[in-house]
Design goal:
Blueprint: H1 2-15, H2 19-24, E1 43-51, E2 53-63, E3 66-75, E4 89-102, E5 106-112, E6 115-120, E7 125-130, E8 133-140, E9 145-153, E10 156-158, E11 167-171, E12 173-183, E13 186-199, E14 204-218
Antiparallel strand pairs: 1-2, 1-14, 2-3, 3-4, 4-5, 4-6, 5-8, 6-7, 7-10, 8-9, 9-12, 10-11, 11-13, 12-13, 13-14
């Protein structure tokens, strides 16, 4: 599935208009990965694939600075932990995106996405609750290109089950991404984030790595 998605992205690049054509199609005033929100009564669908899985996020602009929606995720790696590359899991989260600052050239936003999760380990099925929060700083580099910088705490609580310790797991991720607009309602995204994943009760730390390519559609 990931290979097909990457092939679709490559095909979209091949058909993408030139910079002048993209600008003529209309300036974009929304973003899927920076601190800029969708806009009042606007819907956005953002699908992503890569490591550690695939996801689809939909949100609706409730006001110029607030989006509400949800995210469905299937991961084949445990939350990006490189030491658990074959631990499949599911997440179903609500989504709140808020814009704090937008000068046109620069923007800053916050995101919160709580919801249940379940992972399938060899000896047990582990349930929990995701409570991630993050900040996104955006730079409107050109009429077609956004650059994003991110700081995220995608923390979650897992419940004790069959010998697995119940605890708070705290990833601390830094990273960034790019967002290229083919036209005013279609963008290609790429995000790369990494950092420590702290298991607070087991007293050890793993390395968390995430790399996702996506397509964002505005309706």
């Amino acid at each position: 599935m990931t290979r097909r998605f990457l092939a679709l992205c490559a095909f979209a690049f091949a058909l993408a208009p030139s910079g002048a054509q993209a600008a003529a199609a209309g300036a974009h005033n929304w973003s899927a990965i920076t601190g800029r929100t969708a806009g009042t009564n606007v819907d956005v669908l953002h699908v992503q694939a890569g490591w550690p899985g695939i996801s689809a996020a939909w949100y609706h602009g409730m006001s110029p600075k607030l989006d509400l929606g949800g995210i469905f995720t299937f991961n084949y790696g445990f939350e990006g932990d490189v030491n658990f590359p074959t631990r499949p899991g599911l997440k179903l989260q609500g989504l709140i995106r808020g814009n704090l600052v937008d000068t046109g050239k620069f923007n800053l936003g916050v995101q919160f996405a709580p919801g249940p999760l379940v992972y399938f380990f060899p000896a047990a099925t582990i349930g929990g609750v995701a409570i991630p929060i993050g900040l996104a700083f955006g730079i409107h580099a050109t009429p077609e290109l956004n650059v994003a910088l991110a700081f995220e705490l995608p923390m979650f609580v897992v419940f004790q089950n069959n010998g697995y310790t119940g605890q708070l797991v705290l990833p601390v991720l830094f990273g960034g991404g790019i967002e290229y607009f083919f036209q005013h309602d279609l963008a290609l995204t790429f995000q790369l984030k990494m950092g420590p994943m702290i298991f607070t009760k087991d007293n050890f730390t793993d390395f968390d790595f995430q790399a996702l390519m996506g397509l964002a559609f505005k309706f």
